[in-house]
Amino acid sequence: MIDRFARDGFVLLRGYFRPVELQRICEVVRRFHRAWLRDNRRGFRDGLVNSAYLTARGELAEPDRLLLFRFVAQNKLLRLARPLLAGRPTFINTQLFFAPYDRARKNYWHRDVQYTGLSEARQREALQSQEVWHFRIALADDPGIELIPGSHRRWDSELERDVRLERGGRRNWEDLPDGRLLPMRRGDLLVFSTNMLHRAVYDQQRFSLDVLLSTPDPLVTRYVRRDCLPGRLQARRLRRLALFERGRRRPGVRATDRQRGRPSRRKRSSP
């Protein structure tokens, strides 16, 4: 499987979670989402398609927060993450991807690194040096992700760059010739590199939880919000606490807004 990750930049594991394994976490995530919608009505209508920082203090009741930490730290995820992340997986963030308000909303090609504020030269370097991975769990049937296999280790072709950055009259929602569509069913797990060229696919059922894990690279862990990590009470009741502690070792800073039109609370990260 590691060879597939290295070559393609993703692996889709069908039915990785049984319905009973998702029941409680789905209830927690839906409570978060209802509160998010109340707080972000305008942003949702203006086009937001995901939220983030589900584990932040004050966003969930403490029992729900503990359940979410336990879900993130379960061995079922970490046994995949360890070989990808040099045996030292590090928690970065959680995100929720949901159906857009506007059913006609266009999806768009991007690389997560383009929202970090790095120069293009540094972005290209990051493809070779930074290991950050999405662990995306479909809590409902999801039209999934379209991605360019292998693009996590190479820079854009001229056409890909023009489309992604909307250069030369191109639009970032245009089809690309090497795109591969990966629809997901409830319980599927898609693991893919944040470095790769990808775009979401929207419909009215989309509801997927995303866990971002990395190596303990200071250039990545500086974006970890300390209020999203377990406090002392949660820490006493968690196994595999090192997953979170590796991100705490450097001073936490509030992650910069990396997309347009983002509200002040329960912000999104990337589609």
TrEMBL record:
Cofactor: Fe(2+)
Xref: Gene3D superfamilies: q2cbj1_9rhob like domain
Pfam families xref list: PhyH
Biased amino acid composition, Basic residues: 261-271
Claim: Oxidoreductase is one of the keywords in the record: yes
GO MF entries: 2-oxoglutarate-dependent dioxygenase activity; iron ion binding
Iron is among the record's keywords: no
Disordered, as annotated region: 250-271
Keyword vocabulary terms for this entry: Dioxygenase, Oxidoreductase
Coiled coil, from the record: none
Xref: PANTHER family: ECTOINE DIOXYGENASE, PHYTANOYL-COA DIOXYGENASE DOMAIN CONTAINING 1
Name of the molecule in the record: Phytanoyl-CoA dioxygenase
